[in-house]
Design brief:
By secondary structure, this protein is α+β, with helices and mostly antiparallel strands. It has six helices and seven strands, in the order ααααββαβββββα. The two termini are 15 Å apart.
């Protein structure tokens, strides 16, 4: 099975917004990120994020999506990734970079492999440690957790 693409996710996003407009009216997500904002976000974190996550931020921003949040490249956002990573890194294993949380003390993370962050989404919590998820990239994570696909 191939990874979900930006085009497939965009179609799903618009479909879900049309099906459940009230949910999307209540949620505010950040403005799409510029390339400069992404680079500025990556510098303090000390990692370059995979292209799929960068594309997600450039198309959709961060913040609330359906039933989850995605950390953002907007420094004015409550979901600003470097701020969230600073908090998460106290608990996360080395080489894990938080891109979302589950509101219950767990984190959805990208893992560094040979100095590069992979697209695969992992989940970490205190009880079970670090485990791979079924989500091959951020598009699948948001589709599954936020939109229930």
């Amino acid at each position: 099975m191939t990874e979900m693409t930006l085009a497939e996710f965009t179609t799903l996003h618009h479909q879900r917004a049309a099906e459940r407009p009230k949910i999307f009216l209540l949620l505010s997500h950040d403005k799409p990120a510029s390339k400069r904002q992404i680079v500025d976000m990556e510098i303090p974190v000390g990692a370059q994020f995979p292209e799929s996550f960068r594309r997600f931020l450039m198309e959709f921003g961060g913040g609330s999506f359906g039933l989850m949040n995605v950390f953002s490249a907007d420094p004015a956002s409550d979901y600003y990734l470097p701020d969230r990573q600073r908090k998460a890194q106290k608990a996360l294993p080395r080489g894990c970079y938080a891109i979302s949380d589950d509101y219950c003390g767990g984190w959805y993370v990208l893992v560094s492999k040979e100095g590069k962050l992979d697209n695969q989404i992992w989940y970490w919590n205190n009880d079970e440690g670090l485990k791979p998820t079924e989500f091959a990239n951020v598009f699948e994570l948001v589709a599954g957790c936020a939109y229930g696909t």
